[in-house]
Amino acid sequence: MTIPISTIATFRTAYNPFSRAARPCRLFLGMLRTPDTIPTSSPTHIDIQVKQLPRASTESPTMTIGFKGGKELTLDVGKRGLKIGDIVEEVSRVGRALQREASLKN
Amino acid sequence: MPPRLRIASLPHHIPRCQYEHRIARSASSAAPAVTPAASIEQMTHSPAPVSRFPPAQPPSHRNPEYRRSQLLRSYTSLIRTSPLMVMFQHHNLKSMEWAAIRRELANALKKVDDKIAAEGRTAPAIAPYIKIQTIQTSIFEVALRIVEYFKPNDASLASGKAPSATDPRTQTSAELPAVSGSKDDPALTHDLSRTAHNAVKNSKGMHELSPLLVGPIAILSIPTVSPEHMKAALSILTPKEAGFPAPTRKANPDYHDPIVQNGLRKINLLAARVDNQVFDIDQTKWVGSIEGGMDGLRSQLVTALQSMSSSVATTLEGAGKSVYFTLESRRSVLEEEQKGPEGDKSESS
Fold first, then answer.
1. InterPro entries given for it (chain A) (predicted)?
2. What residues of A are in contact with residue B268 (Cβ under 8 Å)?
């Protein structure tokens, strides 16, 4: 399943890299950071902000995905025990709905 | 054209039978070749026992012909030889971006070396040996555990060595410990050996760094603990996260090239490993902020110790002084008391 990257505008994540729960956040970051999304001049540019917590912090990793059009999806990765597949599924579900809406409008 | 032999020049006495001819030829060929006499060493000592495998290719648990085995060896060597390592997370960098980042990194490190040389310090120039490389995380994790958890003791190391052939005490009948050539031999303790494998088999994922080794990871390896070089490298690679200012556009216009900047946006600082200790980002910043490298740290320590010693001296002196003053005042009081009655007596008499 591919993520509709063109519908994503911003991505915020906070995690402690020393915890195992941060794994999906870091892997998802790798999916969003591509040569197409990084340059600010690119039409599919995603504004990515990563906050790395100190090693001793027990805060659970979270991520917020802002879609084009203002919709925001906040996932508490640590508390829900999400894995990378679940995250991709949720994000792409929302993204595909937005894509469909846009195509219907046009 | 090869020279032709004329039949007339052949020896006249042609042997009557083949047998005779063979004897004659062997006798003639053996005559000039004199076998040198065996040396005294050879006669008194027999040769040392011969190992059944080349010393550089001991039997190993992991097949040395595979790339992953050689990667494991190179990673263990890397971990052993670089006391300062910084780990980065990198995502989808293009080869051009890597090349540009490496170029900037090399330039910045060279400047640090030049600065150290200009200040007249004796630190060696290590800039050419500082490398950033991507790693295979699963193999690197095994290499970490082998380096940190597998400590073959001296006895097993000694038993793995072949007896010296030049040592006169070595008997011909001396048995080679690893002569069996079996992979199970506990005397084999190299990184690919079965002993090493068994020693770290049960500690999978137990190393401090193993939760970090997820996804694409790059490692900056510095062969000595040099906070200055680390600071220079971090100011190039992750200036925002590490809090070290990046070179300005005026000072280094190449650094602000879009290729470099786009590459750097895909790199995150994760952690550092300094002298076998794992440091997170804040501690890494602290290490990088040590001024003047190890010499600076030593001078800081010296000043701290000196100030401490002087304060200790004043404290101890203070106690002695207060005792002295107390006793002095007491003495003066006693003297006055002694004087007092005598003076009264003298007045009365």
1. Ribosomal_mL53 (IPR019716)
2. 29, 50, 52
